[in-house]
Amino acid sequence: MKKKNFADSFINTIEWLAAIFVGLVALNIFINVLLRKFFSTSIPDYYDFGRLLLGILIFWGIAATSYRGGHITVDLVWAAANRKWKRIIDVLATLVLLFVVAVQTYTLFDKVRTTFTDNIQTADLNIPTWPFSLIAWVGDVCAVLLIGVRTFRLVFKPESLHDEHFEQKAVE
């Protein structure tokens, strides 16, 4: 069995964290539905927790899918290109993704800062919402780091990528 390096362990940890956030969102919904159906009550701040956890899930999901290349892509031009151009397209597309997510991370930090300074709280329990925004921002930072690792590996070690279609790309 191949020994995992730090980058691979980091990638797997991020994927597990994204999966945990999916579970938390589902658990929040499931418990609230049961409480409303059988006990005519609900979790305090259910709606706030739901939207805040969904925001966290989105950014950690971006982190998880950005590295693997398993998200939806349109490969019409790529499929028609030769091997050299396919590699160039892959690198350029990843660099564009890195730029976009880095700008998004920068702007999301402003959201964390303003949420903290404005002391925005949940409706029922008055829990500050900035920690949720901070966790989402950390997910976005992880996305930037993973896209950076992906870019490095695309340029210098393409055989170390774990793309869904890597086997096809390596054969061609």
Descriptive overview:
The protein is mainly α and 172 residues long. The protein has one domain. 76% of the residues lie in helices and 0% in strands. It is built from six helices and no strands. It has helices spanning 6-39, 46-68, 76-80, 83-117, 130-156, 166-171. It is elongated and about 60 Å long. The chain starts with 5 loop residues before the first helix and ends with a helix. The relative contact order is 0.14.
Outline the secondary-structure elements.
Layout: H1 6-39, H2 46-68, H3 76-80, H4 83-117, H5 130-156, H6 166-171
Helix pairs in contact: 1-2, 2-5, 4-5
Supply the key terms.
mainly alpha; 6 helices
Nearest-integer average pLDDT: 87
Unreliable parts: none
Number of DSSP strand runs: 0
Oligomer: single chain
The main β sheet shows up as: none
Instruction: Work out the radius of gyration.
Output: 20 Å
| Whole-number total of structural domains | 1
Query: Which structural class best describes the helix and strand composition?
Result: mainly alpha
Q: Report the helical percentage.
A: over 70%
Termini separation comes to 27 Å
What global shape is seen? Answer: elongated
Determine the strand fraction and express it as a percent band. under 5%
SSE topology string: HHHHHH
> Count of DSSP helices?
6
